[in-house]
Amino acid sequence: MDKNTFTGLFLIMAIIAGSIYFLKPSDAELKKERLVQHQDSLKKGLFNKTNTPVAAKFDTTKAIVKTVADSATLKSPFGAASVGSEKLITIENQELVVKLSTKGGKVALVELKNYKTFDKKPLILFSGEKDHFGLNFNVGAKNINTDEYYFTPSGTDLKVAEKDSASITLRLSYSPTQYIDYIYSLKGTGFKLGLTIKPTGLDGVMANSSNLNLNWVASLHKQEKDMKQERQYSTVYYYNNEGTVDWLNENKDDSKEISDKKMSWVSFKQHFFSNTLVAQNGIAKSNLSVTTDVIDTADVKLMKADLALVRGTDGSVPMEFYFSPNRYSTLKGQGHDLQKLVYLGFSPLKYINQFAVLPLFNFLNQFNWNYGLIILILTIALKLVLSPLTYKSYLSMAKMRVLKPEMDEIKAKVGDDNPTLLQQEYLKLYKKAGVNPLGGCLPLVIQMPIVIAFFKFFPSLFELRGQSFLWMHDLSTYDSVIKFAPIAFLNGVDHISLMCLLMTISTLIYTYFNNQISGATGQMKYIGYITPLIFLFTLNSYPSGLNYYYFLANMLTFLQQYLIKFMVDDKKIHAQIQENKKKPEDTKKKKSGFQARMEEMMKAQQQTKK
Fold first, then answer.
1. Is residue 283 part of a domain?
2. pLDDT tens digit sequence for 476-535
3. Between helices 371-414 and 442-457, what is the axis angle to 10°?
4. Residue where a domain stops, chosen among 308, 342, 376
């Protein structure tokens, strides 16, 4: 060994010796390390209950089991697609942003680009772990739900130009020649997302059936200010091929199985937005449900639909999603009678709204006026149409007021002990005077369907959403002027709506003047004051646009009665009544069927008492 070699080996040994000496752990570190090892040993079973060491055993079964499980998974139906990582693919047009997930091949998120939530955040209809969309079928003895498997996309993110259209395919592979394709298509404009489910080469794999079973679940996010009101108008709607729309209960959890009629579409409807699935070949049967988690403040309701989708001759299932606002004209333009998602009331109210109120509203809307002004003009137009009935009602009440002194004389003679005889004498007076006691009520009864029609129309009117007028920031919900802690016995009321308060005050004033015109006394006089107070609590959480309409209607009624007052002279009415009394019975106006029945009933009661 030469000198240089010896010197090199000596230096290496010196470095190793120095490293061992200087890098060795201290006594404290060794003690701490032994304590950690002892605790680990206890966990791993290297020490027994007496705290004495036991022989270490190396368990290779877990590794073997895991290897076997992985191998079994890969060999099971769609096994290769059971593992993977989720990726989101974005497709969008001018109205929609849709995110497709490779896990389940489903629509994972939908955003309406041109709308915001009540607090000005992006309006996302649904997204999250509660949402599911998958086919259910059997392959051999194994049940498959495609929502749990990973699809392979044919492309990446894309934004569709205004006049173009594009599509993307997500594939769930069973083998290179056997697979299920989800083909999504989107045009540059509109709220429609096309989806065709196309199985290929799986006839001998999937259970042979003329239907594909689809499970669709969505938890719909809160969009509006008032969660209670939004839940009140949110539920599952469905439509069959006979042209009938129906829905689950809006006020409580509900479910329904439908097998007797082929359905055309099913919709997870919120107050102002809908998620609708239209099956081109129809839905043979379905199981629908809606549930509400009252503790949840982020989501409105959880909606589910198990659907048996009818397959085409090639085995595919063509469908269309509509993620859209519940604007009547927009939904009608989509076809499939989707406008029936907008509830306009029961018959005949829906016909009043559909063929009278809505066309007039749309006509005024084209001038791009403020919606507060549009409601004002709409109310004026309605009052002008109903003015003949208002005049007739006022005139009839004036006649009853003129007759009141004579009615008081009859009451003094007959007394209160014999109400049947009293009513008979009143009817005789009405007959002689040519007055119909119900003349003031009938015009009001005729107007009631229109009043109720507006009660259904305004809460469903999408156009009012987010529109402000005066102090009202959103005509589609309440305008709170005072906030306080919820009052349990008033169904959780926690505010006072200013417009509702004004409407109530105007109704009380209207009742006062109406009593002056009609000469109402006794219980009838005070019942009129109780009703507006009931409305104060009933309509307090309803849209400010609706209360604004009722307020305007009261104000315009005041104006009408003020003008009619100059056209009606009590002295002339009294003179005309006296002339009517002098006329022979056969020249007087024929009494109504109601009056005849009342007289017969009074006579029968009087004879019974005798």
1. yes
2. 998 888 887 777 766 667 788 999 999 989 888 877 777 766 555 666 666 777 877 787
3. 150
4. 342
User: Is position 281 within any domain?
Assistant: yes
- The total of structural domains in the chain comes to 2
Closest by Cα among 241, 309, 301 to 274: 301
- Cα(141)–Cα(139) distance, rounded to whole angstroms? 6
CA 7 to chain centroid: 89
Query: What pLDDT does 34 receive?
Result: 55
Q: Are 159 and 92 in contact (CB under 8 A)?
A: yes
* Cα gap 390→393, rounded to integer Å: 5
In which element (H, E) is residue 293 found?
none
Q: Does the pLDDT value for residue 417 go beyond 60?
A: yes
Asked whether residue 34 is domain-assigned, the answer is no
Same domain, 407 and 456: yes
Judgement on whether residues 105 and 174 belong to the same structural domain of the protein: yes
How far apart, in whole angstroms, are the C-alpha atoms of residue 321 and residue 184? Answer: 10
Tokens describing residue 39: 């605790």
Q: Give the structural domain span for 306.
A: 79-342
Tokens encoding 553: 């209607």
Residues 182 and 285 in one domain: yes
Question: Do 520 and 486 sit in the same domain of this protein?
Answer: yes
**Looking at residue 128, which CATH number applies to its domain?**
2.70.98.90
High-pLDDT (> 70) share of the chain, %: 74
Q: Which of 21-30, 375-384, 440-449 has the lowest mean pLDDT?
A: 21-30
Q: Which two tokens stand for residue 497?
A: 């709506």
Task: Say if 276 falls within a structural domain.
Answer: yes
Asked whether residue 306 falls in the same domain as residue 404, the answer is no
Residue whose structure tokens are 């680009």: 113
Query: How much helix, strand and coil, in percent to the nearest 5, is found in the chain?
Result: 45, 25, 30
User: What is the DSSP secondary structure assignment for residue 135, as one 8-state letter?
Assistant: E
* Separation between Cα atoms, residue 252 and residue 235, nearest integer Å: 10
Q: How many CA atoms lie within 13 Å of 87's alpha carbon, on the beta-carbon side?
A: 12
d(CA 562, CA 71): 90
Whether residue 115 contacts residue 105, with contact meaning beta carbons closer than 8 Å, is answered with no
Amino acid at 164: D
CB 270 within 8 A of CB 181: no
Check whether 207 has a pLDDT greater than 80.
Answer: no
CA distance 437 to 419: 17
Residue-by-residue DSSP string for 402-440: HHHHHHHHHHHHH-SS-HHHHHHHHHHHHHHHT--TTTT
Closest CA to 76 of 139, 150, 123: 139
Residues 506 and 563 in one domain: yes
Q: What is the pLDDT of residues 520-551, one digit of tens each?
A: 566 666 677 787 778 787 888 889 999 999 99
* 131 and 274 inside one domain: yes
Radius of gyration of the chain (CA): 38
- The b/e string for 328-346 (b: 16+ C-beta within 10 A; e otherwise) is bebbeebebebbbbbbbbe
DSSP symbols for 237-277: EEEETTS-EEE--SSS-EEEEE-SS-EEEEEEE-SSEEEEE
Classify each residue of 124-141 as buried b or exposed e, where b means 16 or more C-beta atoms within 10 Å of its C-beta. Answer: bbbbeeebbbbbebeeee
Per the CB < 8 A criterion, the answer to whether 94 and 162 are in contact is yes
